[in-house]
Structures are given as C-alpha cells and as structure tokens.
C-alpha cells in the first residue's frame, strides 16, 4: 500500500467530492499535518457501472446495490489509523477481506429510552449481509467524507450515527444530538455472513439515552422492539436454542457477551461515562 504523496487524479477526486476549495491548501500544504495516505481508486466510474451490470449478484435489491457501490467505507489498520477507502461492496466480500485484509471503520448504536429499555432492530430481508437477524439499534459505517473522518472526540463516527439513525429508523436529528452519543469502546472482529459476504470491522460502540420518534425504513429494517434486561436474556436463550428461527448479528452477540450488561447497569445509574475506555481496541472473535 503506497504511503507517498497523493497523485493528481486523487487530489482532483477529493477536491470535487469531499472537500471545499477552502480546505485544500490546509490539507495538502507541507507545513500542515499530512492527510492520511489513501489507497488508489479501485475502479473508474465507467468500470464500476460495467461491474454492476455484469456481477453475478445482479439481482441484488436496487437500494442495497446503490449503497454497496456508491458508499465508500473508511479503511483502517488494526490500530484504527486511516489507510484509504473502498466501496462498501468490496469491503464486505470475504475474498477481498481475506486476500487484502480489508478492515473498515464501523459503529454500533445502543439507544435506550427513559425506562432503560434498549431499542433493537431486525435487519431487512433485502440486506446483503446478515438479512433478518436481530441486532442493536443501528449498525453501519462512517463514510469517506470530511464530516465523518473527524477523529477528535469521535465526531466523525457520531455524525455518521446521527445520519444512519435517520436513514434506517426515521429518527430525526434533533432527537439524537451528536453530543449525546457516548463512545464507550472499540472492538475489532471478523465474521462471515455466508460463503461470499462478511464483516471485518473496527467497531465504535456508541450509547445514548433518549426518548425518540421512530419510523423504520422498510428497505433497511424489518421490525423493531424495546427490551429490558430480562427480555433480552430470553431473546438470547431462544437464539441459542434455535427457537423461532431467531438469529442475532455476530457483532451484537460479541457486545452482549463481553460488555453489554455491565454497561447497562451504568445506563440505569446514569453513570455511563464512567464505563468509557476509548484507548483500548478489543480484539474479539
């Protein structure tokens, strides 16, 4: 992976797609802090269109197809340093995950109401990875854009979380101010979805306690429910027993098994910030 100066084409792409002209001198000046090294573009727009048309999964849901090819995830190393970007499609192909060790930044939101109940969602049947599994409130990726690349106080990730809560659950931004997301930790994990797709993520775990208006987007979400601790434990029992065909996402299960219930106690005591540890990257399997 090249770590040298950005080439002319890459600079032009950044200028037109991500950064206002007023930021260019700051970003590329030798006297300023260097911008993270970027991977070369995987394909030109014309080649990408051809790939979409010729792909063996051409029957993919149109909304999911657009997200898979248009969204650019942030590639990081195992210490969470930005090393480039690639399409959501490539970042979730197990072949590329294994052959190129593609690791991308992600987030998982855990939203509790004032009764300390956790909002869960069941992923839509049209989702490419892990369709119809139950998981935490919202799980997605910050994208390779200026507002979601801000590392200070995890602001880029929190901006992305606010955006996706609206996209997936119809929760308006005013219901979930970015300063109300509390980053509690980071975990690195890899999980196959099927023979073709999977996840390899460095996942930021964000907690918030808010009473919100929810209007799920059927392209993203099949169902929602609020659960208390005992109801979640019953959900886990059913999933472990294979009852009702109930399945949980692997990242949600890792959080449940390693952190959730002790953090939930802090939610109930309103001492959640005391549980935060953003220095450690938990490598989980």
UniProtKB/TrEMBL annotation:
Q: Enumerate the Pfam families for this protein.
A: NUDIX (PF00293)
Q: Which Gene3D superfamilies match?
A: Nucleoside Triphosphate Pyrophosphohydrolase
The reply to whether NAD figures as a keyword in the UniProt entry is no
GO biological process, alphabetically ordered? chlorophyll biosynthetic process; dimethylallyl diphosphate biosynthetic process; isopentenyl diphosphate biosynthetic process
Question: EC class of this enzyme?
Answer: isomerase
In alphabetical order, the GO MF annotations are: isopentenyl-diphosphate delta-isomerase activity
Q: Which keywords accompany this UniProt record?
A: Chlorophyll biosynthesis, Isomerase, Isoprene biosynthesis
- Kindly list the GO CC terms recorded for this protein: cytosol
Cross-referenced CDD domains, in alphabetical order?
A: NUDIX_IPP_Isomerase
Matches recorded under PROSITE patterns: NUDIX
Tell me where on the tree of life, at the top rank, the source sits.
Eukaryota
Family (UniProt): Belongs to the IPP isomerase type 1 family.
Task of the protein: Catalyzes the 1,3-allylic rearrangement of the homoallylic substrate isopentenyl (IPP) to its highly electrophilic allylic isomer, dimethylallyl diphosphate (DMAPP).
NCBIfam families to which the protein is assigned, alphabetical: IPP_isom_1 (TIGR02150)
Protein's UniProt name: isopentenyl-diphosphate Delta-isomerase
Specify the species. Rosa chinensis
């Amino acid at each position: 992976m090249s770590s040298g100066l950005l080439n002319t084409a890459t600079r032009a792409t950044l200028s037109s797609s991500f950064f206002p002209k007023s930021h260019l001198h700051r970003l590329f000046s030798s006297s300023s802090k260097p911008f993270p090294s970027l991977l070369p573009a995987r394909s030109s727009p014309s080649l990408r269109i051809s790939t979409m048309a010729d792909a063996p999964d051409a029957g993919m849901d149109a909304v999911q197809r657009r997200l898979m090819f248009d969204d650019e995830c942030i590639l990081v190393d195992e210490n969470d340093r930005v090393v480039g970007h690639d399409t959501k499609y490539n970042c979730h192909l197990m072949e590329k995950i294994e052959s190129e060790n593609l690791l991308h930044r992600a987030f998982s939101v855990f939203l509790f109401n004032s009764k300390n109940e956790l909002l869960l969602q069941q992923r839509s049947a049209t989702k490419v990875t892990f369709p119809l599994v139950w998981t935490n409130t919202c799980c997605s990726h910050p994208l390779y854009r200026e507002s979601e690349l801000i590392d200070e106080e995890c602001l880029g990730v929190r901006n992305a979380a606010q955006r996706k809560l609206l996209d997936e659950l119809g929760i308006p931004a005013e219901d979930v101010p970015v300063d109300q997301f509390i980053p509690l930790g980071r975990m690195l994990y890899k999980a196959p979805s099927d023979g073709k797709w999977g996840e390899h993520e460095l996942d930021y775990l964000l907690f918030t306690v808010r009473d919100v208006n929810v209007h799920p987007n059927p392209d993203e979400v099949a169902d929602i429910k609020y659960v208390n601790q005992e109801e979640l434990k019953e959900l886990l029992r059913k999933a472990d027993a294979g009852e009702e065909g109930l399945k949980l996402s692997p990242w949600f299960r890792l959080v449940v098994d390693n952190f959730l219930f002790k953090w939930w106690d802090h939610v109930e005591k309103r001492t959640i910030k005391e549980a935060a540890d953003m220095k450690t990257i938990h490598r989980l399997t």
